[in-house]
Design brief:
Distance between the termini: 34 Å
Number of strands: 6
Radius of gyration: 16 Å
InterPro entries: Alr0857-like
Shape: globular
Structural class: alpha+beta
Amino acid sequence: MLKLTYTDRSFYLECLTLSLEEWVAQRVILAMRVGQCLCIEPSTASFLLPIDLPGVEVLKAEVKRDDREIITLCACDTEYMEVTLRGSWLSNGSEDAVGVFVTTISDRAEFFLHKLWQESQESSASVMSE
C-alpha cells in the first residue's frame, strides 16, 4: 500500500505492508477513540518525478502491465513526468489540502515508485545544498 501524507508545505510518500483495508480500519478506529472527524472519499493524487531518474523505464513497464488504471504517467516537459494515482483521501473534512492519500497498486510498481520518489528527494536535497 502507498500512503502519501500531505502537509501545508509538502508531502511524504511511504510504502506500507498493511493492506489498504486494514490501515483504513485502524485509522477509523483511532478517529473514533479520540473523537476526531474523519472524512474518506475517492480521489486522485499527483506529483512530479524527474524523467531522467534511473529506473523510470522499469516503472513505465510496470504501469503498462497493470490494467486496473490506478496509476498513470504523463510527460510534463523534457525534465519531469506527472504520476497520478487513484485511491482514497482521508482528512478532517475541511477544505485545506492537509490529509492522507492511500492506494494499492502492484507490489513491484509500489516498490519502484517509492524508490524513484526517494531518489528524487535525495537529488533535490543535494541540489539545494550546493
